[in-house]
Amino acid sequence: AALAALWGVCAVPLLPTLAGRPSWVFSVGYGLSSAAAGAAMLASGAAGAGPVALAAGGGLVAYGLRLAAFLYWRQNAWPEWKERAAKAPEARAKNLLAPVLGCSALYCLMCSPALWLLRAGAGAGGSLPPLALLGVAVQWVGLALEGVADYQKSAHKATAPDSWCSSGLFSTLRHPNYLGEILHWGGLFVAGLP
Predict the structure, then answer these.
(1) How far is 133 from 140, CA to CA, in rounded Å?
(2) How far is Cα 23 from Cα 88, in angstroms, rounded to an integer?
(3) Spatial separation of the C-alpha atoms in residues 145 and 29, rounded to whole Å
(4) Is the pLDDT assigned to residue 19 strictly greater than 70?
(5) Confidence of residue 162 (pLDDT cuts 50, 70, 90)
(6) What DSSP string describes 57-112?
């Protein structure tokens, strides 16, 4: 029942997709679904969850709000992103309900390790296993890495829109923003394993 409720929570931010914003399902709606999932989990089980579980749910909220705000800004501030959204396959789709239901199910499953962690509470010994703490730490490192990388790339593109960003994190990593995304979700998965 908790997973079904989480699926519903993840679907709500995707509803603007059905009202003429088809790219929303893969962009702003993705971030808002993550934030809504984290907020709903924190609201429903925060009382006895413990600091590690609260950090996992809070990480979803922070990740989702940061990503949604960034993607909304980028989509509205950069003409090339408006063009991409207009040319995307989902912009020409006749039935958007299937992507909304499918993506909300995917986002629900992606966020579910935080649900398991919150449901585990503090465990029998008063704390969660070290694996959960490690996972949440990796989740937050990923969140920070992706945020810094997105900022650095945006600042670079503002001054040199047609050149490859090779400064900051991009001087040592080819795609630090994608690495941050992988660390965020991988860390959350590891945190939910116990």
Answers:
(1) 11
(2) 7
(3) 21
(4) yes
(5) confident
(6) HHHHHHHHHHHHHHHHHHHHH-HHHHHHHHHSGGGG-S--HHHHHHHHHHHHHHHH
Are the C-beta atoms of residues 100 and 7 closer than 8 Å to each other?
A: no
Please report the DSSP string for 2-39 in residue order: HHHHHHHHHHGGGGGGGGT-GGGGGTHHHHHHHHHHHH
Tokens of 142: 């990923």
Residue 32 is predicted with a pLDDT of: 94
- Read off the pLDDT of residues 91-129 as tens digits, 9 standing for 90 and up: 667 778 888 899 899 999 999 999 888 877 655 455 678
Q: Which amino acid is at 164?
A: W
Q: Which residues does 156 contact at the CB level (< 8 Å), separation at least 6?
A: 163, 165, 167, 168, 170
Q: In this structure, are residues 23 and 96 in contact, taking their beta carbons and an 8 Å threshold?
A: no
Instruction: Report percent pLDDT > 90 for the chain.
Output: 44
Reduced to 3 states (helix: H, G, I; strand: E, B; else coil), residue 128 is coil
Residues 6+ apart with CB under 8 A from 45: 53, 118, 119
Cα distances from 31 to residues 66, 76, 86, 108, in angstroms, run 8, 16, 20, 12
Q: Are 41 and 60 in contact (CB under 8 A)?
A: yes
